[in-house]
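Hey, resending since the last one bounced:
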Amino acid sequence: MSDATLSPLARRHDLDWIRVGAFFLLILYHVGMLYVSWDFHIKSPRIVEALQPVMMITNPWRLTLLFLVSGAATRFLTDGFAANGGKAARRLAGSRVLRLLPALLFGMFVIVPPQIYYEIFQALQGIGVADPAHSWVLQDFWVKYATASGNWCDADGCVTTPTWNHLWFVAYLLAYGLIVAVLVGLPGRPLAGLGRWTERACAGWGLLIWPILYFAVLRFTLATLFEITHDLTGDWYNHGLSFGAYLFGFLIARSETLRATFIRLRRPSAALALLAWAGWAAYAWIYRGDDAAPPEMLKLLMRVVYAIDQWTWIAAILGYGARYLNRGGPVLRYLSVGVFPFYIVHQTVIIVAAWYLMPLSLPLPVESGLISGGTFAACFAAYEIARRIGWLGLLLGVRPRARRVEA
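The structure tokens again:
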């Protein structure tokens, strides 16, 4: 992008607030996954069907938004490396490996195993029902998990270990960061040219039209061929969504032109988002049964509606965020670092808390409130520990704070 379009700010507070909010929303979404009929690692015996349309408000776009703001954060990081001298590409790659790889490995072998343990426990024994006949399956569980020697299969398939479960997001961020580092290091600065082209193409209503068209093409092509698997190597529809959003965020992060366009289009974006959600939620509710057979033309139409839903919610959030979330401060500085360890530990806390609370048959608002509150409390505790243990904090994605040099 040209110098005229670069933000004079070292960092955009609105994108940081949106990133924090999106991670918090994801924690609540995963609590909700206990109570809807969709697959999750463990399930409550008390399914709340009416919760499903509410969950569908964020379902099409929440992770795509996270990848977009993560790409924007990578842009600011890259520009900071370039401004301070040295090879930006090399420093970006090193930074991504240092920040993400230790947390990914620690998560896979320490944080994630309890999720698999209780998933298998529930599949074999049911909630709170002990069955000694199956106890051998969980003996020496961690060894079996870490060495992939556990035979954990049923009629629905097998649990393969070790696994990254929700930490697939971290693995994908690492891969995408390394790809962008390679692109940054190419001669001729191709990303700068692509950024200028993106800014021109998305000026005005193009900011809504072209991303919606991109998502719609994905729905008609890759989505019909590849299910979302989170396995990195064959997850092509998911890569189309996630890397596309990550790269888009990287390209537009410093464009004042597009920031102003998001603000200008925030109201029509919000209106379209609500209409698209209503259409998609109604469709999913009406045809929610296993034997549902919607008309073929309606299925094709819903692919377009889904694409509109995906992008207009993101555009509205970015527009309102750019308009109203412009203040930084100590709270934002604290949370913008904290949300990464929050993400790493939250799903395990949810599952463990739910496992021990669900047999008590508390009222659902009380049970879900305790799970949510306990999860946030555990996330803050994990972050505070990570901040105080020096370089070991990298196991939860927290780099040690620079020591002050006293005069």
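Confidence is low (pLDDT under 50) at residues 1-9, 403-407.

Sorry for the duplicate.
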